[in-house]
Amino acid sequence: MEILTWTYILVGLSFALYIGIAIYTRAGSTKEFYTAGGGVSPLANGMATAADWMSAASFISMAGIISFSGYDGSVYLMGWTGGYVLLALLLAPYLRKFGKFTVPDFVGDRYYSNKARVVAVICALFISFTYVAGQMRGVGIVFSRYLEIPIEWGVVFGMCIVFFYAVLGGMKGITYTQVAQYCVLIFAFMVPAIFVSMQLTGNPIPQIGMGSTVSDGTYLLDKLDGVLTELGFAAYTSGRKEMADIFMITLALMVGTAGLPHVIVRFFTVPRVKDARLSAGYALAFISILYTTAPAVAAFGIYNTIESVSEKKVDNLPIWVANWQKTNLITVDDKNGDGIVQYVADKEANELTIDKDIMVLASPEIAKLPNWVVGLLAAGAMAAALSTAAGLLLVISTSVSRDLFRTFRPNMSEKKELRIARLAAAGAVVIAGYFGINPPGFVAEVVAFAFGLAAASFFPVIIMGIFSSRINKEGAISGMVTGLVFTLSYIIFFKFISPELNTKEYWWFGISPEGIGSIGMFLNFFICIVVSKFTPAPPQDVQNMIQEIRIPRGAGSAQAH
Q1: Burial call 356-394: b when 16+ CB within 10 Å, e when fewer
Q2: What φ, ψ does residue 354 adopt, rounded to 5°?
Q3: SS3 561
Q4: In angstroms, how far is CA 404 from the centroid of its own chain?
Q5: From its phi and psi, is residue 157 left (phi > 0), alpha (psi between -120 and 50) or beta?
Q6: Which of 208, 320, 354, 459 is deepest in the core (most CB within 10 A)?
Q7: What is the per-residue pLDDT across 362-390, written as a single tens digit (0 to 9) for each?
Q8: Total domain count for the chain?
Q9: Does the pLDDT value for residue 229 go beyond 70?
Q10: What is the tens place of the pLDDT at every residue in 424-444?
Q11: What CATH number is given to the structural domain containing 536?
Q12: How far is CA 103 from CA 47, 207, 263, 431, 433, in A?
């Protein structure tokens, strides 16, 4: 069967499964909508967390950026992996013991202030909308290529699917849908990786295959270094980024993880604090399968790409190039008119432009794998993008209905709150779709901005809210506002207002927009501590509550105000 036929079958079956689960697990109360009733098993929650965590950035874009950036791209791998460990060990159990549904819920109660809650809602919305834009962009890319429709219509189609099962099922529907999506995405990611590893190195384990030899007896990475340097690129295993920027990007990604509201809320869906710790461990194991494979997929992908297109005649390029040209994510321009494609580092002489986000999706076609493998990868990419998009949309709807509306209308009925949550999710889908059609960068880059915003706004107030009883509402509000405004302004200036200045010569201290969230975080900490020092200490009951949170026994159950 043709690729398109396989794609329709496999994507269609996976969508039918997700929608069926959403209908079967339809939320009937706010507790089921927000936390799946608090009765999810640690194993199921671990799989759902892994699916929520491994977004389009992890599935589609991370290996793509490593392919083209080599060593420099490893910041995403290190930052996101280390960040999850930080979240699982340092924050998740304490937040679960606190027993609230959302991060703004925690901020509002811990800092005994509705103003702090509203500021936290604003931060959550900025983070979530930035993050979900990357997911919707990933959805559009998948639909554009495999269903042969424009990216814009691909985003619209994805919006409709996410709207259906996120708005209908809430956290209950999303949790069990994400369990299915994890199974789909990890199988879809691993099968092509195993195939290509066998082709190139004869080893079925991609992680080992990356360090093995190719057909001529040369180690794959050595061969790749030689091929790239001949074309004028930097060696694959060398780096060009400044060490300070690498450190700041990695740090922003790590601590930004700990402030991501859609991941934190997953730890409220299990019955006990012990289960939160256990599900975090399961999730880390499930996540590591993809994250340890991604560098191999990146190396295999760029090696096969260069072998496939370099020095080939323009009218005799592989079929996969023509397929992706329809999406405008690959362009071929025979600048010197010699009929031969020149793929080189010199931008003036280079005749082939490849979007970083297609590397994983195109790899089965480049390697000439069976068509069903290509269709399977499409289904996996959709699962990755939609699972995270659904989690983010739930955070947005919860922030609006619970943390915003109920703050000012505490006597609102549960039925009305649920209706507002669903309407907020519907509005969020539309806004997310717009940013998916008009993204500020490629998928992993957009997601990195979300992590930077989370690092600069949420991480300091969460970590100090748990481990310091002296930080007060004035400090928390000042810190969040300072961190968010500084980081957002820096990103907007270099990405939208003056993109021509987006080079290390103009960056502050040589730190890129992807890493500026670390500076925003330090500012947040500083302002928070200084302001708290010169303003009254929190009430004694709040200080007692903080002490109780840190006691590693007992369990608080998620509850309404």
Answers
A1: bbbbbbbbbbbbebebbbbbbbbbbbbbbbbbbbbbbbb
A2: -120, 125
A3: coil
A4: 25
A5: alpha
A6: 459
A7: 888 888 888 888 888 888 887 777 777 77
A8: 1
A9: yes
A10: 877 877 887 887 777 655 555
A11: 1.20.1730.10
A12: 22, 37, 10, 22, 24
- Using CA atoms, how far apart are residues 135 and 385, in angstroms rounded to an integer? 5
Between strands 330-332 and 352-354, the pairing is antiparallel
Query: What one-character DSSP code corresponds to residue 268?
Result: G
Q: Report if residue 220 sits inside a domain.
A: yes
Beta bridge partners of 354: 330
CA-nearest of 311, 308, 306 to 341 is 311
Distance CA 104, CA 89 (A): 21
Rounded to whole angstroms, how far apart are CA atoms 319 and 312?
A: 12
Q: Give the C-alpha separation, 90 to 259, whole Å.
A: 12
pTM over 0.85: no
Say what the alpha-carbon torsion angle 307, 308, 310, 311 is, to the nearest 10 degrees: 110
Local structure of 341: helix, strand or coil: coil
In-domain check, residue 288: yes
450 C-beta neighbours (distance < 10 Å), count: 25
The answer to whether residue 240 sits within a structural domain is yes
Q: Which domain holds residue 413?
A: 3-306+321-549
> What are the two backbone dihedrals, phi and then psi, of residue 346, each rounded to the nearest 5 degrees?
-65, 115
Residue 106: inside a domain, yes or no? yes
